């Protein structure tokens, strides 16, 4: 066998092997279901999310924009089962999808509308959306539901539209879709869809009317939460336009698809705003995404960079974190037109490294007092630049514990004056495996300490957990 043929053979063999593993998981996982404890709500201190019984809800989301548009029932069940097994509790999905979601039929040949101008809906299309939402609920997963992708308001430089929404019909559509799903306990409403309101336009009002339409149909016994999904922007995300709007319950960012951005600064910006609202990075760098959309020169994203962004954001005060995989959001298969060069079919991409590591972040945050956690920018005493070495800390408000994230394992001076107790104990937490082990360095004191993680360099990130002895 020639070299090129041999490489192709082994690549195909590898894909088939991974797909077989996933199919085996699919056969087992659906029996491990867990009903949602919803609807989720804003915590009393307005910084986090809580479940219906007031226990913490750490937002750990996957991005599946085309879930309703490009899957069969069997595929949706397999996808949701595997994501539940991996520890995700939210998935992002769009009712009027990005990839020609108005005129392009779903996997069953159905489109959303019989006649949009008259608000005549195609019941067969929406029945499938109903099924998938219920399927998610049965597996303990909430759906961050976008009523529409933003190109249905304006296409900008990409998107096929059609541009169908204005102030009047946005309200009517919001009212209709809000009524349809008013009883669902696993929904979070996400307005917008990757479009920032244009200066001098009525875009802000259109999105506001859609949000108000959803509220007008809401069941008051089943409270709803609403946010807004923007494009990358500064200094905040949704907060740039809607922070003081009553309908915006929590802020959302899209921090973009470059690996070298100080995303924690955007979370920090929102954390300082008044009134206090939770904030979440709803679209960070995706796994196996072309870095800065330039695969030729910058290559594809790797788990190290994605993990660093996630820990940065949460330690800066975010109420959770979204994840995405470039092949999965678009449900890419070899017979579909690829968007920005996905590397493999979506079914195989479900098992990438970060998809299996995100649960470690969620489990770490839920392992200590949750609602009293705050960011602490003063624990790190070493001078720092906004680069990939940036060390960041979070702690319990009264000093019961602190966590410090070292993205590159650099030796750093830390100041634990804010912690209570004269003697401190510590452990190292490995973000790659979720394993903890005792800290064995010099005794930590309440003042300044020079701390060296177990290893250093790219991919050697660590969390130091410090608390009263």
UniProtKB/TrEMBL annotation:
SUPFAM superfamilies: (Trans)glycosidases. Signal peptide: none annotated. Residues 374-467 form the Putative collagen-binding domain. It holds the Pfam family Collagen_bind_2. Residues 43-371 form the Apiosidase-like catalytic domain. InterPro entries: Apiosidase-like_cat_dom, Collagen-bd_put, GH. This is DUF4038 domain-containing protein. It comes from Mariniradius saccharolyticus AK6.
């Amino acid at each position: 066998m020639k070299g090129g043929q041999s490489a192709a053979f082994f690549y195909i063999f590898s894909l088939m092997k991974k797909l077989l593993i996933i199919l085996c998981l699919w056969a087992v996982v659906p029996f491990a279901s867990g009903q949602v404890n919803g609807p989720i709500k804003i915590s009393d201190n307005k910084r986090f999310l809580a479940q219906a019984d007031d226990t913490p809800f750490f937002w750990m989301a996957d991005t599946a924009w085309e879930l309703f548009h490009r899957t069969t029932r069997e595929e949706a069940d397999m996808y949701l089962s595997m994501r539940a097994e991996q520890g995700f509790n939210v998935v992002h999905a769009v009712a009027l999808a990005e990839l020609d979601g108005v005129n392009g039929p779903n996997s069953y040949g159905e489109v959303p509308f019989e006649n949009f101008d008259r608000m005549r809906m195609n019941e067969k299309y929406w029945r499938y959306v109903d099924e998938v939402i219920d399927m998610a609920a049965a597996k303990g997963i909430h759906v961050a539901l976008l009523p529409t992708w933003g190109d249905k308001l304006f296409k900008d430089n990409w998107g096929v539209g059609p541009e169908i929404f204005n102030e009047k019909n946005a309200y009517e559509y919001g009212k209709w879709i809000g009524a349809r799903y008013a009883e669902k306990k696993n929904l979070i409403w996400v307005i917008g869809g990757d479009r920032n309101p244009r200066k001098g336009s009525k875009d802000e009002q259109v999105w506001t009317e859609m949000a108000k339409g959803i509220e007008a149909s809401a069941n008051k016994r089943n409270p709803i939460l609403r946010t807004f999904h923007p494009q990358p922007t500064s200094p905040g995300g949704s907060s740039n336009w809607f922070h003081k709007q009553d309908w915006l319950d929590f802020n959302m960012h899209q921090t973009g698809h470059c690996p070298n951005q100080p995303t924690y600064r955007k979370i920090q910006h929102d954390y300082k705003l008044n009134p206090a609202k939770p904030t979440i990075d709803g679209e960070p760098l995706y796994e196996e995404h072309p870095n800065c959309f330039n695969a030729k020169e910058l290559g594809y994203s790797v788990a190290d960079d994605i993990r660093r962004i996630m820990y940065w954001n949460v330690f800066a005060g975010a109420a959770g974190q979204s994840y995405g995989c470039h092949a999965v959001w678009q449900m890419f298969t070899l017979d579909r037109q690829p968007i920005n060069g996905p590397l493999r079919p979506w079914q195989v991409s479900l098992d990438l490294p970060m998809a299996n590591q995100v649960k470690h972040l969620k489990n770490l945050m839920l392992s200590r007092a949750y609602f009293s956690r705050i960011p602490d920018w003063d624990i790190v005493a070493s001078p720092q630049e906004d680069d990939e070495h940036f060390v960041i800390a979070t702690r319990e408000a009264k000093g019961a514990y602190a966590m410090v994230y070292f993205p590159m394992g650099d030796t750093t001076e830390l100041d634990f004056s804010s912690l209570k107790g004269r003697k401190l104990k510590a452990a190292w937490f490995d973000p790659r495996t979720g394993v903890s082990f005792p800290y064995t360095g010099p005794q930590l004191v309440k003042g300044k300490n020079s701390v060296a993680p177990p290893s250093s360099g790219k991919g050697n990130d660590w969390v130091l957990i410090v608390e009263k002895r």
